[in-house]
Description:
Elements: E1 8-14, H1 34-43, E2 51-55, H2 58-66, E3 70-73, H3 85-94, E4 100-103, H4 113-126, E5 133-140, E6 168-179, H5 180-186, E7 194-198, H6 210-226
Parallel strand pairs: 1-2, 1-4, 2-3, 5-7
Antiparallel strand pairs: 4-6, 5-6
Helix pairs in contact: 3-5
Amino acid sequence: MAMKSDNLCAIIPVRAGSKRVPNKNIRxxxxxxxxxxxxxxLNMVFSKENIFVSTDCSECANAASALGVNVQWRPAEFASDxxxxxxxxxxxxxxxxxxxxxxxxxxxxxxxxAELREAITAYDNLLPGEFDSLTTVTQVKDFMYWPDSKPLNxxxxxxxxxQDLPAIFKLNHAISILPRALMIEQKxxxxxxxxxxxxxxxxxxxxxxxxxxxxAEFLYNWQHTLHP
Length: 228
């Protein structure tokens, strides 16, 4: 029987607009840039023809073309600051011919080929029945409050140790895999009944601010000094 990964492609979304870290996708990072790093990570588990860079940025397009992967020009209405991500997800899924989609961001440079292989294997082997998709998550063990000052996950009159808090998971957006048809139907990269694949805090390192960018670059250089 054919594996799901036999008809799986990878989508990397990179748009021109970036408010908090200007040009973060192609800004110099550890001697290269985030887009090139993610393409090279994917290239260790995908053939070039199954990697798609969705962009409205000519510099990102040129970088992707130079590395031999597919460039999909994204219309302006799907690259604005106001468009719903739900509409973007549906558009991106409709833009590829494969039955299954691996969606990943360049802003998780520490999530590399090892996590990609693990996620693809899990998607192939663990999902035929109970689960319809896979998404990487990070476990949160913090004392959380609602805006009205009510505690979310603990009793302040019987405060537990942090390690005894109930498990809450947050999406880290490092890897999501799901059927293309489900991504279109749900307009999301998370299915109706996803398998939560926990990855390490290091692999989940995400870049949102300039401080995040600097920290991630330090960690990336540190990791590749230890494991070149």
